[in-house]
Structure formats: C-alpha cells, structure tokens
Amino acid sequence: MKNGLHLLTMNLISLSSVCTPDQLNELNSCGSYVELGFCEPDSLFFSFALQNCFFSCGFCQRPPTTSPPTTAPPPTTAPPICLADTLESCEAYLALGLCGPDSFFRDFLAVNCNATCGNCIRKLKILANTTMAPTTEANTTMAPTTEATTTMAPTTEATTTMEATTEAATTVAEDACLQAHNDKRALHGTSALIWNSTLAQHAQEWAEYLVSINDLQHERNIDEGENLYASVSQVQGTCAQAVESWYSEVSLYDFQNPPTTPQEFFDMGAGHFTQVVWNATTSVGAGLATIGPDASGAIQTYIVARYYPQGNILGKFGQNVFEPNMKTAKTSGLP
C-alpha cells in the first residue's frame, strides 16, 4: 500500500509539474509541516499536506517568472499630517514607552495621541508678521524618565570626539550660555556645570533639524536631558535668553511637593527650570539655528540645550531640586 501511494504521489507530481494559483496559495505554516514529515506518503497528515501545502511539499513547481512591464515607481507619499491629541496624558504615555511598536497600547495611542505617538508630521510653526510682539517665545517640556540612564559616561572636561560648529550664524556663545546656567544654579546651591562639546554637537544637529521642519519637537530615545526654546524677533535669540525663559518656571515649582507621577510633572509645568538646576547634572552643551530674516526683518531662532546626566527623573526631584538661597536670590533679582 505504501508503494502504491508513493507511485500515486509521483504520478501526481508529473501530472501537475507547474503549480496553479490555488496550489501556491498555502498556509503560512507549511514550512513547519514539511519539517515534521507531513508530506511523506505514509504520514497520517499526508492528505492534509496534499491539500494545503502542495507547493511546499514539492508536488509542483513555481511557474516561470516573466519580466513585468517597466513602469514608473509609485510616487513616494509623505507621512500624514498629525491630528491633535485627544488625551491629556499623551506625553506621559510616551515617557513610559507605551507608544513603542511593541506596546500593547500602540494602536490605541496612535489614534488618540496622534500628534505625540503617530507616524505623522506635526504642524506647529512659528510665523512672524508685523502684528506679532517684538519677541514671541515657545518651548516644550521633555517627558520625565522613570530611572537614570547610563549609556553615555559623564565627562569631567570637554570632550573632543565631536567638535561643535563654528559658523557665526548657527553658533551658541558658549561662555555666555554656560555662565547663564551656572548663575541660576548658584541661586540654589547647585554645583556649576562644565561645557561638553559632544552634547553641544548633538544639540546643534537637532537645532538644525528643528529649523528644517520649522517646529519644536523633542528628540526621542536619547539619554540626555533636553530643553528647547524658540523666538521670533528682529535680532537673533541667545542661549542666555533661553535660560532666562526656562528658569522663569521657578515660580510654578512646588518645592514642598515635588512631582511623583508623569501627570503631576506635566501639570506643574516647570520641567525646563528643574533641568537647569538639577543637582546631579554635571555638563551641558547647546546649539542654535535660525530662519530668516524675512521681508519684515524678523528672525526665528531655535535653541537646544542638552544635559548629562539627564534630569527630571521621577522619585529624585527632592534630591536634586533645592529651594533658592533667599539672600542670594534677592540680590540676583529672583522672581
């Protein structure tokens, strides 16, 4: 009987040497069935394999391919424009990694947090016109992390692996930027930062990207703290102005009740301030890029500051954000 079935199989192969479309339309698991011996004539599952895995079992051959007519490649399409987020906690969900491709909530958040989690292009441009105030500022707050990252080693002096750009139109005044940070940190008894050229290079690259999209967006999946600033004025903005803007959030921070959840962090609205004075941060670098001037003479300035180790770590605010020394703060004009 076994030999007769084998002959039947051989005849079947010879009669159907080229697969039909139906025979090529197989189960995804046929490869596994072949390895398990389902295609052998004496297998209990031979009839099943014959019906569902004809090609994989070697009972027919794939039809010869013919060169398709030459056609123009389909036009590339840009990602869709983002829809507004419908949930208030989208940035918090992003910070918790719930927007990732492997997240159970990915599809839900792509719809309800489209601007934050979706594969789309945000449109939030800063446009200058004659009715705009002399300086219009916009900044965004980076999501807190739930634990400190250690991928990049802290530096004790400026590194030289990557040099910051030196073009006048897109260079931060390093000394003034560093001094602005350290002046604010001194008000809180926090140690002075050092300038890190690697951080500055990263910041410069991101500032130039923000100019290319004319929008403020945080870079994702980095192990550096980040503050963003944008202005529209008749003169180019400076890092010192950005630090002043970030630090102005000190009035929003509750030193007696530091945030313990992402929602509390975002509700407080002081994330730029806390990163500037974060005690565990030891180094900073910044980048600047501009658009314009336009016909009215207005210049859009984008400034990015990067920090290491990064701040805004949930559970560590009390250890890193200190109340200001009121005597020092008073002489320094602290609000």
UniProtKB/TrEMBL annotation:
Domain ShKT: 19-60, 82-120
Coiled coil: none
Keyword Signal recorded: yes
GO molecular function annotations of the record: toxin activity
Keyword line: Signal, Toxin
Domain of life of the organism encoding this protein: Eukaryota
Pfam families referenced in this protein's UniProt entry, alphabetically: CAP, ShK
UniProt xrefs under Gene3D superfamilies: CAP
One GO cellular component term: extracellular region
Keyword field contains Iron-sulfur: no
Transmembrane segments: none
Signal sequence, renumbered to the chain: 1-19
PANTHER family: CYSTEINE-RICH SECRETORY PROTEIN-RELATED
Protein known as: ShKT domain-containing protein
